[in-house]
Amino acid sequence: NAGVTQTPKFQVLKTGQSMTLQCAQDMNHNSMYWYRQDPGMGLRLIYYSASEGTTDKGEVPNGYNVSRLNKREFSLRLESAAPSQTSVYFCASSSKPGFTEAFFGQGTRLTVV
Amino acid sequence: GESVGLHLPTLSVQEGDNSIINCAYSNSASDYFIWYKQESGKGPQFIIDIRSNMDKRQGQRVTVLLNKTVKHLSLQIAATQPGDSAVYFCADTNAGKSTFGDGTTLTVKP
User: Fold this and answer.
1) Which tens digits make up the pLDDT trace of B15-24?
2) Facing A42 at nearest CB: one of B49, B93, B103
3) Residue of A nearest to B34 (CA)
């Protein structure tokens, strides 16, 4: 099993450009998450989807949108990238929200210049 | 606001020694805690978890202790090995959402 797969692994954007980060999981998990990790810091929740068809804001949602395309896929979109969005983005999934561990992808390293 | 923090950003230990990584949390409503390990260039990986109705839980070479009175969590790694070198995060979960601390970088000296 691949687990959680993120694409792309690296991306450089110019300020104002848009892009979508893709995430897919093959573990039949109900819940999926998007986090960002800045240097020397922990992960901060951007958006999450407790189950297919639902999405909710996390700690730092401004400047992002998400789509839970189906049970497997959860995408993160930056409509107008800003240098402050330079970060490493992690997608994760879990069987249910709470009382279960999350499984993480390898991350997308995004630089906005 | 609520936060989860680790006491020390870095910890250096000798191979074979025991390691203790500490974490303080502030959300008294947290009901589930996880320790993750993150190696360079990779996503976090689950190590061990504990529910708020427990004080201690043991895994293979790892033990997590929870003190709800002082809102403190610790991860003990027995006989630390070079492969344990990584960043360790604690995370508390409340209402299905996890809050991560900033991480402790563990370096194991041969």
Assistant:
1) 999 999 999 9
2) B103
3) A101
CA distance A32 to A44: 14
- With tokens 């006491």, the residue in question is B7
Pairing relationship of beta strands A43-49 and B72-77 according to DSSP bridges: unpaired
Distance of alpha carbon B33 from the chain centroid: 9
The 10 Å CB-count burial string (b at 16+, else e) for B81-105 is eeebbbbbbbbbbbebbbbbbbbbb
Locus of tokens 């690296």: A10
Q: How confident is the model at residue B97 (pLDDT cuts 50, 70, 90)?
A: confident
Closest chain A residue to B105, measured at CA:
A40
Question: Is the CB of A45 less than 8 angstroms away from the CB of B98?
Answer: yes
Phi, then psi, of A13 in degrees rounded to 5 = -120, 155
CA distance A7 to A55: 20
Q: Check pLDDT > 50 for residue B1.
A: no
Q: Which residues of A touch B9 (CB under 8 A)?
A: 40
